[in-house]
Specification:
Length: 79
């Protein structure tokens, strides 16, 4: 996972944390679905005062894990 620090370094103004609403938008999920994933421990989050934030690196890890879980032998159009 050496490329992880490079991801953050790609853009000096890149956010480290995003709101649940922003994370849901980036993942094309509903807020409710994202909160469910947070409660299940699938997507880590942090509390800052009364606010909940999600590390962007964890969003990237979540997407990477989804990609890895796809069966490469499965075809979308098989009948």
């Amino acid at each position: 996972m050496q490329d992880e620090p490079q991801r953050a370094a790609q853009s000096p103004s890149a956010e480290l944390l995003v709101t649940v609403e922003e994370a849901a938008r980036r993942l094309a999920l509903s807020r409710t679905t994202l909160y469910h994933q947070i409660r299940r421990g699938v997507i880590p989050s942090v509390r800052i005062g009364h606010s909940r934030r999600i590390p962007v690196i964890d969003l990237e890890r979540y997407v990477d894990a989804l990609r890895e879980s796809v069966d490469p032998n499965a075809t979308r159009w098989s009948r």
